[in-house]
Structure formats: C-alpha cells, structure tokens
Design goal:
Length: 193
C-alpha cells in the first residue's frame, strides 16, 4: 500500500491531492510503527526478557507524564482529559506501569467520541488502584473478556480515526500480570468504561 501511495504522490500535480496522499502515507507508517512496536513487546514478553524492577515513586510523577503525553491527543479530539492529583507513593516497576496505563489511556481516548477520560489514583494507605474512566460507548458483557485477546477489537474507532491493531489491551494485560497487578474492567453499554 505504501509503495502505491508513494508512486501516486509522485505523479500528482494537484497540491490538495498530494497532501491527501502524504497524509495517507503518514498514517500507513504510523500503523507499521505500531505493529512493529507491539510485536517487539510481545516478543520480549514471550521470551521472558522483561523482568519487573520494583522501586518506590510518587504517583504524581507518573500521572503528570501521562497528562503531558495524552492531553494534546484528547484536546485534538475535543475530549477533556482529567488527570486527578495524587500524593500516594507507589511501589512497582514504574516503566511497566506507565506502559500499561499509556495503553489504557490511549484506548480510552480512541474509542470515546465525546466527553472525557479521567485518570484517578485511589488508595487506602496500603494499596493503590489507578483508574482510567471514559464516557465512551461501553463494552457489552459478552465482549469484556475478549478485548484482552490479541487482534480483537470491539466495533471500530470513530470515523476519521486510524485503524487500531487490537494489540494494546493484550499487551497491557500481559505486562500487568507480569508485574503482579490485575486489570479489572467495569463497563456498561452507553455509559463508558
């Protein structure tokens, strides 16, 4: 597909058509990068090359990184991204937790057509739960376990969104299991997740 787009772009004289072809090439490259990155993560997980390294760090630093990374994406889509402040310390592998949360936040933004995505940290002094909530369409009960399977996607992204691979939630679940942190899903059709 990319070769066809390149050939087409070279032969176009209309500037608007050329921009459209260049945009299609950009999306194609992003999809390929996503696939390569996902396959590398899966390969590392399958080979047992990822070993959690627990440290203690403030939840606020991780949440701030997520806000900086995803606020522009949410804003471009017309969504509100609420990353609520949290002063709790977290003991886990920071890089693995960030990878899991980034997959969950990206997925929530992708599949939420209007409204908001909220990231909140809830704790009781001993345990901490980080929630990613959205106002999206929700997930039917019979599909809630399947969304963590490789290449499985519920419905499709909103028109104008690039197609997703269906690997992000699978990778997130595998990483969270490796780190010893379960992913729990609560979702109702028409009410979000």
């Amino acid at each position: 597909t990319l070769k066809i787009l390149i050939y087409t772009c070279l032969s176009l004289s209309d500037e608007a058509a050329r921009r459209e072809a260049l945009h299609a090439m950009d999306v194609s490259v992003e999809v390929m990068e996503d696939l390569i990155r996902a396959l590398l993560h899966i390969g590392q997980l399958d080979a047992g090359n990822i070993v959690p390294r627990k440290t203690t760090f403030p939840a606020a630093t991780l949440l701030d990184r997520l806000r900086i990374q995803f606020e522009p994406l949410a804003r471009d889509k017309g969504l509100i991204l609420d990353v609520l402040p949290c002063a709790l310390p977290i003991v886990t592998d920071k890089a693995l937790l960030e990878r899991v949360l980034a997959n969950l936040v990206a997925n929530a933004i992708t599949y939420t057509p209007v409204g908001r995505v909220t990231v909140a940290c809830v704790g009781d002094g001993t345990h901490c739960r980080i929630e990613v909530r959205d106002t999206g369409p929700g997930i039917a009960p019979d599909e809630q376990e399947r969304i963590f399977e490789e290449f499985y996607r519920v419905g499709r992204a909103e028109d104008g969104q690039r197609k997703r691979l269906g690997l992000g939630l699978s990778i997130a679940k595998r990483i969270s299991e490796l780190a010893g942190h379960p992913i729990l899903l609560e979702s109702r059709r028409g009410e979000g997740s």
